[in-house]
Amino acid sequence: MQRAGPPKAFTAARWSFETVKKHSANTGFYSNTSILKESPTQKTTKSPGSPQPGKLNAAIVWPPKYDLLGIKVSATSYAEAVELVLAAAQKNEPAVISCHAVHAVVTASGRAELRDQVNTFQIVTPDGQPVRWALNSLYKTNLAERVYGPELMLRICHRAAQELAPVYLYGGSPQVVAALSRNLKNRYHDLVIAGAESPPFRPLSQSEKEATVRRINSSGAKIVFIGLGCPKQDYFAYEQRKQIQAVKVCVGAAFDLHAGAQTMAPRWMQKSGLEWAFRLGQEPGRLWRRYLFTNSTFVVKLLLQSGRRLVSGKF
């Protein structure tokens, strides 16, 4: 199917959007949809970061995955993940990338259907330090750093701006997605935001799902950032893995953080694997049960998996 919006080389025209609020009398919820407007055509040159024509014909080699509590987590880095996302975008390959910290890994490992769906994704990044530590301990992957959803989003946006690859923002509240759009444009002036919307905080009807797919595909977006939270964003990405033609990147709390709705943990806490403690201090009433259960479950399951590998002689 021919895709509308910016041309394949991303260089013939610039696109902007304005947010329109639609009100549902039944739910009282305001949702955002995007209207694309074409700006005057500008003469542009090919970005130095754009792939050579021969590379578009090369098959994409996704990073190796390793079993962690039944979830196949990718041993990858920021540089590799960004390169692969942009390569898939250039090839119009509708890949799915999801960032998994402890909570996401534990949640998926405890739900057979979700586990099977997540394990089909092209990349599942080690979003949290404990996930990275576990891969290094179990499989000697020697990962130097985690691949954190909010940081990955910024790095992809940086490259997408260089290559004029349009992005789409799907998730968050109307206020969050509007602030996120402004902040990203202020940070990356050449970033083409093909559209942005805040879906209702309820299950979508079939007609709403189809309309969402049409909006995203007709926008010309090559990369869709999904910020619905865990596990909702993974369910959505899997369900629409073939219908949405763009690369789908599930980034969780990145929407709230980059919109300024939440505060990011200090870097020393991030590096020490204590980001959960920082977030718990911000929202104790909402998060204490989650972290008490998921952190404990992660440790117990990891010890059991380590024990099985030790007994089998795989350590």
How would you portray this structure in words?
Helices cover 45% and strands 17% of the residues. The protein has 13 helices and 10 strands. The protein has helices at residues 53-56, 78-90, 102-109, 112-118, 129-139, 149-163, 174-187, 206-219, 232-239, 254-259, 267-271, 275-282, 284-311, and strands at residues 15-23, 30-38, 65-68, 71-74, 96-100, 123-126, 167-171, 193-197, 223-227, 247-250. The strands form 3 sheets. A 6-stranded parallel β-sheet has the order 6-5-10-9-7-8, sandwiched between helices. The longest helix has 28 residues, at 284-311.
Supply database-style keywords:
315 residues, alpha/beta, 6-stranded parallel sheet, two-stranded antiparallel sheet, 13 helices
In brief, what are we looking at here?
The chain is an alpha/beta fold and 315 residues long. Helix content is 45%, strand content 17%. Helix 2 crosses helix 6.
